[in-house]
Amino acid sequence: MIALKIEDMKQFTARLFMGETFDHFLIREAEIITFNVFTIDGHIRQGYYSEEELEENHLEELSSWKMIRPYCFSLIKGKKLPGSFQIVLQMPPQAVDKFVTGHQMPLKADQVNGLYLNIRYEEGKLFCVTGTSVSIFTLDKTLDMEWDQAVRSFLKKNEIIFQEE
Which residues contact 7 (CB under 8 A, 6 or more apart)? Predict the structure, then answer.
């Protein structure tokens, strides 16, 4: 787990809320505090969509950030900055499989519960914090180190300037 302080908040938030940079992630949860506290649970409610809609839109357990992004943007846009926000993004299962296989991990893909990117804005500072979850006990930190490096590379590739805290 690493904490990366984002240097250019305006650029980052534009990419997060208006661009497509983070659209391939799923959203686990979000909390946006403006004049009220808005909480979003990214879990798709079973029964809301028909089987055909689920298949057609490739919907599984969590909503994509792309689907939720416009709602979050509508909550933060305006003349005043939000008091704070926290967004937990998760790598999709298919991408986790590819990530684990591609990095020759000592774990199997089905042992990885999630690879997370926690985005937190508070007190005028913006951080990206990495996180992993596995279903077994292991002292091996290869997954953590590889995910940390993948996030650093993702931010650099997208020209997002950060400082490691």
Answer: 161, 162, 163
* Other beta carbons within 10 Å of 46: 8
Q: Which DSSP symbol is given to 45? A: P
The arithmetic mean of pLDDT across residues 111-120, rounded, is 95
Rounded-to-integer distance, Cα 52 and Cα 30, Å: 28
Structure tokens at 108: 């199997």
Task: Give me the half-sphere count of Cα atoms (radius 13 Å) on the Cβ side of residue 71.
Answer: 17
Q: Name the percent of the chain lying above pLDDT 90.
A: 73
The pLDDT, as a whole number, for residue 106 is 81
16: left (phi over 0), alpha (psi -120 to 50) or beta: alpha
